[in-house]
Target: MaoC-like domain-containing protein
Amino acid sequence: MLTYILAMTTAPTRTSTIQEFDCVAALTQFVGQPAITSAPLLIDQEMINRFAQATHDHQWIHVDPARAMAYSPYQNTIAHGFLVLSLLTYWQTSCIAFPGAVMALNYGFDKIRFTAPVVAGSHVSARFALTQVAETKPAHARCTWDVTVNAENASRPSVYAEWHILVQYEDGSET
Model:
């Protein structure tokens, strides 16, 4: 059996309701319904520093709190946009599940926009609105989600993205 790609080794904190989609029809029926909101996650300086280390992006606006306090218009460090984007799988698994799926795979993005910074120390969540489901073959779906990432107490969302996920459910055939 293929691994559930979006699953994490450590399960996200489950403070939000989990919306389950156990088949392609359940996904299709959910198109146009109100967005699903994830559990919040604290994006702190330690997380930002670890991301900077992993990506070799040590720009001061992300990793130097003293300099950011003195020179940044945000008076604090801010998270890398790609850090925030990479957390979509965490937020997705905190509020959406695909029981019966043998695989859920990131297929790509359209229309990504970083519209506001995420200041270090912010609690951040994401909203997922399912806008399209295409059954590419029996028990296989390509889902399009409009995603909005919000930091608490921010005047506007931090990220907008159109995210495509492939979901394959068990159908008895070899994969």
About this structure: Residues 1-15 have pLDDT under 50 and may be disordered. The radius of gyration is 18 Å. Residues 19-44+83-169 form a domain with the Thiol Ester Dehydrase; Chain A fold (CATH 3.10.129.10). The CA atoms of residues 37 and 98 lie 16 Å apart.
